[in-house]
Amino acid sequence: MIPVGTVYGLHLTGGTSIRLAAGDSKSADLLNRLALIMQLEPDGYSVCSSCLWLTVDPLFSAPEGQRMCQLSQWPPGKAEVFFYQLMKISSDLQRMLLSRGALLLHSALAVYPDPVAGERGVLLAAAGGTGKSTAVSRLQSPWRALCDDAVLVAMESDFPEPRWRAHPWPTWSRLLDGGPGGSWPVETSVSLGAVYFLNRDNLEWIQPLGRGQAAVRLQESARQIGNLLLRGRLPAEKRSILAAQFEQAVKLAKSIPCADLHLTLHGAFWQDLEQELTQRLRKAGSAVQSDWAGVPVLG
């Protein structure tokens, strides 16, 4: 089968690659727009490659062994329908990536350039409306934000000990009618240094989480961003997805420090993060969860 239009590649940490192809001209137009949003480059296609086929044609059938993303027809220019089609594609990509060990989290991604250890990614995770976007918008130089709603984390494959990298993921709601739009360098990644779960408070302080607590909180973050992933699935498939999310959450919690970050509306919380990250990265074995022991309450 020959794809219609351009085939694009999505290349991520650990050698994971997915190609996106269109089965009809309308889907090809949508795929071109998606490639601009996710900053994807054209890629080659072969029948044996891992590929997600987009189509609005109800009679289309993907090649054997490859996944198909069936999209409903939509009137041209309807931004809200375009948004839901993007969400459907994102959900199907999420399912494919989860099967390869990558986990999508409901989180913002900020980067701190540690002068010794180099750039480290910091996740600011929270439910919708808790303040992820506001928090990252308050960050001051040398911090920089890569995204404010969803982050894909994946384990590196070239090291004997677990190391994780974080990829920015689009904020699809920005593409709704009247929204600011945007594009995100999804293939770009940064070494993951820590995960913080945001809590509004009158004081700013950090509460370390144990591995068990962290794993539960990470899976909840994955569930928050993946509601569409479970919609319409049979009970057995839902259980399989939740089990896979929890498996990756446990692996992440074992190797990346996680904590509750209590922050006020106007404090310079990133200064506390800089201090804590700098101290921890200077310690031998800084990626081990037990390194949170003895971290002072910051105010």
Order of helices and strands: EEHEEEHEEHEEEEEHHHEH
Count of individual beta strands? 13
Bin the helical content.
25-40%
Broad shape? globular
Class by alpha and beta content:
alpha/beta
Q: What is the second-level CATH architecture of the largest domain?
A: Alpha-Beta Complex
Rg value: 20 Å
Strand order of the largest sheet: 3-1-2-4-5
The total domain count is 2
**Largest sheet geometry:** 5 strands, mixed
N→C terminal distance: 61 Å
CATH class of the largest domain: Alpha Beta
Poorly predicted ranges (pLDDT <50, ≥5 residues)?
284-299
Tally of DSSP helical segments = 7
Beta-strand content: 25-35%
**What does the average pLDDT come to?**
87
The CATH topology of the largest domain turns out to be Phosphoenolpyruvate Carboxykinase, domain 3
Describe the structure.
By secondary structure, the chain is an alpha/beta fold. The protein has 2 domains: 8-73, no CATH class; 103-292, Phosphoenolpyruvate Carboxykinase, domain 3 (Alpha-Beta Complex). 31% of the residues lie in helices and 26% in strands. It has 7 helices and 13 strands. It has a 5-stranded mixed beta sheet. Strands 6-7-11-10-9 form a 5-stranded mixed barrel, surrounded by 4 helices. A hairpin with a 3-residue loop joins strand 6 (103-114) and strand 7. Helix 4 (211-225) packs across helix 6. The N and C termini lie far apart (61 Å).
